[in-house]
Specification:
The longest helix is centred in the middle third of the chain and has 28 residues. Helix 4 crosses helix 9. The protein is α+β, with helices and mostly antiparallel strands. The strands form 5 sheets. Strands 10, 11, 12, 13, 14, 15, 16, 17 and 18 form a 9-stranded antiparallel beta sheet that branches. The chain starts with a helix and ends with a strand. 14% of the residues are buried. Helices cover 31% and strands 23% of the residues.
């Protein structure tokens, strides 16, 4: 074998290696490696300022690395269901329907529970505290959480009639105006038809309803009952209009302030500073649940008031009076006219119930720092 053939075999055998040692084949392997390295650098230079993720999509090199969402094992339920436990009231554990208040540490309370906590604290002569962290709460320390209110209004809720889901902000409109399964009464209810049913069945019922064919005598009995309720309402307004025609009329804004009795077990009561109306000096007092021992343990709460004449009079003073809500309060008070003949021996009226609609309105008054109302007094001329 010639020397040329021996060199060719040795070169072929040494070519796959990457080492530069022996038999003068190092430059060939180095050239191959340099070519592969340059190709890799060229590939990197073709993608300046970018990198690719596992899916091959190009991402910004300066952007921070994305955090992976960690899924807990056994985690069940939709996002909305998990948000219910986050956004619910800490007292009643239900989603708020109106305003949402938060303590200084961020714990949420619906408006009803917040007012109830302040009212209970007023009755027990204690400082109201957050049920979670026990920090002090009041109307000045707590604020509304508008972000939670908006978030809750967008959460889905089931319609109580058709069981379909709607955002809570539009659920009331759907249930009262749009739902085909909402509870509806017959249009002949005013003449005695007792039918109630889903809205999509009301048309078929009204076609078959027998009340339009009733005799006049039967209808007169039904209309008499309706007239009696209208007469009572009309009588109240006529009485108020007649009082407004009196010669001597006085009104003033009154402010009930909370006080405690001197008993061993103190009781809450309210009293106004002395005020002057019709050239006489007066005082108003109010009490909770007719001064029962523990009104904070009762779910039903009422307020009653009495009017006291502090001035001395030469003759009997016959007056009618009524309390209405103040100009800046949202409490609902139905006007009820009271009547009393004041004298030096009978200068106090009996306690009369403050005509508020329910215990919720009473809690609003108890939760306030003071109770602001408007008093009208009409002197009856003989």
């Amino acid at each position: 074998m010639s020397a040329m053939e021996e060199r060719g075999e040795l070169a072929v055998a040494a070519a796959p290696g990457s080492s530069s040692s022996g038999l003068g084949v190092g430059p060939v392997g180095g050239a191959l490696e340099a070519g592969q390295a340059n190709a890799g650098l060229a590939g990197i230079q073709e993608e300046p300022g970018g990198r690719r993720d596992a899916s091959g999509a190009e991402t910004d090199a300066d952007a921070p690395p994305k955090k992976r969402v960690r899924l807990q094992e056994g985690e069940a339920g939709k996002l909305e269901e998990r948000l219910y436990s986050v956004l619910c009231c800490t007292v009643c554990l239900d989603l708020p329907k109106a305003s949402v208040y938060q303590c200084t540490n961020g714990h949420l309370m619906c408006a009803g529970c917040f007012i109830h906590l302040l009212a209970d604290a007023r009755l027990k002569e204690e400082q109201a505290t957050c049920p979670n962290c026990r920090c002090e709460i009041s109307k000045s320390l707590c604020c509304r959480n508008l972000a939670v209110e908006k978030a809750v209004s967008e959460l889905p809720s089931d319609c109580s009639y058709c069981l379909k889901q709607f955002p809570r902000s539009s659920l009331d409109h759907h249930q009262t105006e749009e739902c085909q399964d909402r509870l509806t009464q017959c249009k002949y209810k005013r003449i005695g038809c007792p039918w109630q049913g889903p809205f999509h069945e009301v048309s078929a019922h009204e076609v078959e309803c027998c009340h339009p064919s009733k005799t006049g005598i039967e209808l007169m009995g039904i209309l008499d009952e309706m007239d009696q309720s209208h007469r009572r309402e009309l009588q109240l307004y006529n009485s108020i209009f007649s009082l407004l025609s009196f010669e001597k009329i006085g009104f003033t804004e009154v402010q009930f302030r909370p006080y405690r009795t001197d008993d061993f077990i103190t009781r809450l009561y309210y009293e106004t500073p002395r005020f002057t109306v019709l050239n006489q000096t007066w005082v108003l007092k109010a009490r909770v649940n007719d001064s029962e021992r523990n009104p904070n343990l009762s779910c039903k709460r009422t307020l009653s008031f009495q009017l006291i004449l502090k001035s001395k009079v030469n003759s009997a003073l016959e007056c009618s009076f009524l309390l209405l809500k103040g100009p800046y309060d949202d409490v609902k008070i139905k006007p009820v006219i009271q009547h009393h003949v004041f004298s030096n021996d009978a200068n106090e009226t009996e306690y009369a119930p403050l005509p508020i609609s329910d215990s919720v309105e009473c809690n609003k008054l108890l939760a306030a720092k003071n109770i602001n109302l408007r008093l009208f007094i009409f002197q009856i001329q003989k």
